[in-house]
Amino acid sequence: MGADTHTCWEKFTRYFDVEPRIAPMRPDDFTLSAGDVAARVDEHTIAVGALLGTTFTGQMDDLSGINALLADLERDRGWVVPLHIDAASGGFVVPFVKPELEWDFRLSQVRSINVSNHKYGLVYPGMGTVVFREKSDLPEELVFHINYLGGDMPNYSLNFSRPSNSVVLQYFNFLRLGRSGYERIMANVMENAQELERRLTEPGHFVGLGDTSTFPIVVVRAADPDALDLFAVSERLRERGWIVPAYSLPANAEHITVMRMVVKENFSRDMVDAFSSDLDSAVEKVLSASGTAEANRGKARQPVC
Ligand SMILES: *Cc1c(COP(=O)(O)O)cnc(C)c1O
């Protein structure tokens, strides 16, 4: 896996005593490449995890390159290394906005895919889905058959009782919206994300890092990090009620600080406008505070508003 993955991956390896082999980022490339995988895979590798929509920068790992590498390993050495796609962020977007993009079971080595149904606000938080390529990919010994709730209830999970409200709501949305409904919603979400990115980057203080042609995830860094402290901008936005995290990227790109905005279904065009204007004034305040600090060096202190 790459350093671009969500914490859940490291959590899995620690809880299940699996040795993680994590490819670091590069200073100018924040995704997992086929070369990264080639350097870490061997005959004991249980799986390669790759992302459709990375957590840190909202991009896509080189899924077709990694798939080709694993197919070659199977053909040339007989190593069968399954590919799991973490589509938590992309699984409910890409099929509707870029259906031609091959990231799923169309890639020969993909055995399983997970998606966060809730990520863009369309069901209650916490619902996720995993799908396997074939029934045999889920060993029967992992499925417990329970009779004490009446009838045969197959159970495959870590904990037991879970609310079913999300499942009901998800089926309702499938039936109510259909494919065309999801297409409309996602087209709108993408448009708002692209407009948000345009509004953020046009004035020149921010540079976009993500891939807003594929994912409604806007990630920016400061055009001049010495002049504009993103942690201070994030703090200022919080005063206006916007929670926009600022954070540094993992090794070896930790010198880059970014802010990330995941555009959900309820983030309307009006909110893009309101957010952009709050951001503009946050940036101005941070710049004038640091400009004043510069100007005040060795001078009498000026009042700062
Ligand atoms: C959000 C996310 C997760 C975690 O999903 P939850 O639905 O919050 O449990 C895992 N991987 C990626 C890439 C994510 O974006």
Would you spell out the secondary-structure blueprint of this structure?
Blueprint: H1 7-15, H2 34-38, E1 48-51, H3 63-77, E2 83-86, H4 94-97, E3 110-116, E4 128-132, E5 144-146, E6 153-155, H5 165-201, E7 206-208, E8 217-222, H6 230-239, E9 246-248, E10 257-262, H7 269-296
Parallel strand pairs: 1-2, 2-3
Antiparallel strand pairs: 3-4, 5-6, 7-8, 8-10, 9-10
Helix pairs in contact: 5-7, 6-7
The chain binds pyridoxal-5'-phosphate.
Residues 6, 8, 51, 53, 55, 86, 88-89, 116, 119, 128 line the site of pyridoxal-5'-phosphate.
Short description:
This protein is of the alpha+beta class.
- The number of distinct β-strands equals 10
Q: What percent strand?
A: 5-15%
What is the CA-based Rg, rounded?
22 Å
Summarize the amount of helix as a percent range. 25-40%
Output the number of helix runs. Answer: 7
Distance between the termini: 47 Å
Rounded mean pLDDT score: 94
Largest sheet, order of strands side by side?
1-2-3-4
Bound molecules: pyridoxal-5'-phosphate
User: Order of SSEs, N→C?
Assistant: HHEHEHEEEEHEEHEEH
Structure description:
By secondary structure, the chain is of the alpha+beta class. The protein contains seven helices and ten strands. Helix content is 35%, strand content 14%. A hairpin with an 8-residue loop joins β7 and β8 (217-222). It is globular and about 65 Å long. The protein starts with 6 loop residues before the first helix and ends in a 9-residue tail after the last helix. It binds pyridoxal-5'-phosphate (PLP).
